[in-house]
Specification:
Largest sheet: 5 strands, mixed
CATH architecture: 2-Layer Sandwich
Distance between the termini: 9 Å
CATH topology: STM4215-like
Order of helices and strands: HEEEEEHEE
Radius of gyration: 15 Å
Length: 105
C-alpha cells in the first residue's frame, strides 16, 4: 500500500483529512494520519519486507459513532487496534487507530 492509497481510503469517509496536522484549525470531526514507525522483516542482513505502522486519529466534539463507523469502514482491509481519549484542553474526543501495512517500494 502506498501513502496515496491510504489517503484515498481515508478521504472516502467524506471527512477532512490531513497528514500530520492541518495548516489551519479545523472544526471536528476530522482525521489526521501519519507514519508511526517501521516493523520491517529483516533476516540474514537483508530487508525482505518494508512494514509500516500507521496511526489514524479521528477527532470529534462529541461521541460520534457515525464518524467512527466511516473510519472503520475505510480501514476494513486492515487489522487495527482502537483507543479513545478525551482531550480536556481541546474539549474533544480523539479516537486512535493503529495498523500495519506492507509498503510498496
Amino acid at each position: 500500500m502506498t501513502i496515496q492509497e491510504l489517503y484515498t481510503k481515508l478521504t472516502s469517509t467524506g471527512l477532512p483529512v490531513a497528514y500530520g496536522s492541518f495548516t489551519a484549525p479545523k472544526k471536528p470531526p476530522f482525521i489526521t494520519y501519519q507514519f508511526a514507525n517501521s516493523n520491517d522483516f529483516i533476516a540474514d542482513s537483508k530487508n525482505y519486507a518494508d512494514i509500516a505502522r500507521w496511526r489514524v486519529e479521528l477527532y470529534t466534539a462529541d461521541k460520534d459513532i457515525s464518524s467512527e463507523s466511516k473510519v472503520e469502514q475505510a480501514l476494513s482491509d486492515f487489522v487495527y487496534t482502537k483507543a479513545e481519549y478525551w482531550i480536556d484542553e481541546e474539549k474533544m474526543f480523539q479516537i486512535v487507530y493503529e495498523f500495519e501495512t506492507i509498503m510498496e517500494v
